[in-house]
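Methods: example folding runs. The two proteins below were folded one after another, and each record is reproduced exactly as written to the output file, sequence line first and structure-token line second.
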Amino acid sequence: MAQERIALGINLRKNKIENASSFGKYYPEVDLQKTLSLRGFAEHMTAHGAKYKRTEVEGVLNQIVECLPELLAQGIPVQLGTLGTFYPTAEVAKNGAVLNIGAMRGLNPNDIIKGIHIRFRPDQTKLDNLCAPTFKYACQLELRNIVDTVEVGVDSHGNPKKMQTLKPIATAVAEWEEEHGETPTGGDNNGGNTGGNTGGNTGGGGLPGSGGEG
């Protein structure tokens, strides 16, 4: 029996930047659910018919967690089969550009590097292409909520306290139709609040250095 695919929820968030050309428009973002722990991931793998016990799978995953950063810290990219490749990139510090070759004498790289990022580049081979446009078709997308962030007071330091709200898109559309007395354009927006934690960068995009994949 084929296993039912679980949908990837897509929420919409309104652009509130008044001087932006896209002000007032809604942009999609993934409805992120609760993060799965390493143990939970191991249990998920064993539930999918892995030949090994959960403790054995978890042990291997812990070895990966320990060894992967060690290799990346040496500038060694690590390819995990057809999943993709982890690799390090350098983030330049403010005013970290070296003016000329003469300025390289006695240069300390710590003075020009702000940080080292761990990046991931999905596999792009013909049979196992996981780059962004292709991976989208491996997901069953489902519109769910309109996301908003509202201020709910101030904290002990006087900074605004914010709370995220979710309104099912179907509810928002029904309210819009009732208020305007007409059917809005943009297609049939169905979906609902699944209680997930939404996040991510509005508008999508790949990781720096990954050629736009991710």
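Second run, written to the same file directly after the first:
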Amino acid sequence: MNCRCFVIPIALVVLVNVTSGCGNWAARAVKHIPASTALDRPYAFDGHVVIVGAGPAGLAAAKVMEQNGIDYTVLEATDRLGGRLKKDTTLADFPIDLGAEWIHSNPVVLNRMKGKPGDEVEEELIPYRLESSSTWDGKELRPLTDRFMNRYYEFMPESKFKHSTWYDFVMNNIGDEVADNVIHKSVVSRLDWTWDSVEIATTDGQRHTADKVILAVPVGVLQKGEIEFNPPLDKVRSDALQRIDFLTGFKMFLRFEECFYPNVVTCKVPSGEKAFYDVAYKKEASSHVLALLVQGELANNYFELGSNEAKVESALDELDVMFDGAATEHFTGEWRLENWGQTPHIEGTWTAAYRERSRDLKTIRKPLGNRVFFAGEIFDMHRQMGVPGAVLSGYDAAHAALTSDSKRN
């Protein structure tokens, strides 16, 4: 959705060149992938840990607790696991990632995420070297050259799961092990970290006490002040959090009888990102599914249309202009839409740490009094972005929580 959580390739969205600031992130940051994680270390902790959020980061932190027999609870605001990971198995003859979709990191990171030694990856992946791509300025569809696409892939090689999804990977290797310790529909409204233990209040009146808390909620939840902190977050941290870009957006999936479109069409927009892309690309599937990804202010134009059906009609109208009516001609009437920007307790798409100030990243990663620790893609220190960054941040937060003392600072 640039180096991010659920997206199409960086260069094809923003047409970056090889001198951009993204050069030391994601797949090019293979040297920053840790040789080991908290999964490879034993921990002894005589206390209770509360993890807030059951997305990839929170589930990863929970796996460390589970593996070491540590007393823990996961509080999840929704009725499901996975956060911005979600899949659909009904629209096509292959599973579709409705949230995070691309593997922006070197595939070896998959082994680190599941605690497997070595660099030989078991998962069957699709190298995302595009065969056809175009740009669209609202009037003209312009193909990108093969040379450009080769140059992009050499600069930032990415991949996708061939027969599976990010949701499956995280649930099979992490989430399923900790699911029994998750309390669903538990919306945290207040954290009181005044004393050596932390008091957690939820909107339904429940109270939890923890020796350590790992806060693994989307950064948008922190930006909107949905969790009250006592003592309050200091101004330096609050200002740094507000400067992090966590833009609104959605993903739409349209099924067609034929594939009349290239692998990717990137659209010229004043800010944010917009692109159509072939979801079935190299999936060895018979279903034809085209996705529309919109992030940033432009998404609000679609939201103002009201119903999801109106959003679908708008996308079809634009495709008809691009492809001389082929969209309406071949549309099966089947579609899915995930409005991540307006989903409660999510309220955004992804973060891109390489775009943020290093000082801000350092500030927001600091724990509160060695009692409250932060996890999530924006808190990753290994420059991996997206799901790998989120999972690694969860392991790091678990390690920090289990090895730090409780002295106030």
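Comment on the second run: The longest strand covers residues 249-256.
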